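Hi everyone, sorry if this is the wrong subforum. Our group has a chain we'd like a structural model of before ordering constructs, and none of us has done structure prediction before. Sequence below.
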Amino acid sequence: MTIESTNWTPDAFRHRFVVANGVRLHVAEAGNTGPLVLLLHGFPECWASWIPVMGRLVDAGFRVAAPDMRGYGTSEKPRGVGAYRWDALTGDIHGLVDALGERQVHLVGHDWGAIVAWMTVMDDASRYSHLTICNVPHPAHFTRMALDPTQLRRSWYIAWFQLPRVPERTLQRDDHALLRRVLKADRIPGTLDPALLELQIEAATQPGALTAMLNYYRAMVRQGPRAVTRRLRRITVPTIVCWGQRDRALGVDYAAPPTAWVPDCEVRRFPDASHWVQVDRPDAVARAIRDLHERDRVGARERQATDP
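Answer:
Right subforum, don't worry. Here is the predicted structure as tokens:
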């Protein structure tokens, strides 16, 4: 399997709605054979942020599926901050695996999608064969991050997002100028397709979407750190963390998860990528996903060779 450049566009994907955990989710899919890779986007994006990676994976022999997460794009937008608690978010992913008719999937996440991916695999690892994380620390780091003055300055926006209505109005102002600036921030020149940017703006401007998207942050703060520490479980599935070192929101010191919590983990750092590593370096992220499966095949061949 090779990872080459790709010219995949949104029209190349199959689109449908499924009900997962009682919520109607839009899902984009491609590929007909091979292992299924389920990709979860972050804030303030949508399923389409994965197009450059998804195309490469399909060309390399995988099947792919990427939802608009609860509250995003054309997926259902439950009202109220409580609808975005940890149990609701992880329940969506378990339900989505069921709705896709799979026993196990390779779970991939970026930003908020990566937080949900960590939490989901800790909740029930039996449904997930592999895990790939893009630019989000392991939840075991969250308490230390909350006491780190440098990281607190980087994460100032989380406090601002707690305000009612003000962030929504600010993000909408002047044809969503601030939202556009966030989506363009720190990108490597030439990596963000203007059509992809407009797709993400369109997704974020669906009725109720901005409030739903911000409710992820509001629910996280309201639940408090104990809600995270109670959910910490050892992850033993093969894991790769991909980290763009130009991330201005999250310090690279938090890239590697604690070995005690994730013993089978490799961290790949990319000095030429920003927080949006899956768009800046889709080749590298797709290769990391492929390499986890290749490692399985090599291990299986070695075990066969040593069997009496």
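For your construct planning: The two ends are 30 Å apart (CA to CA). The first helix runs from residue 51 to 59.
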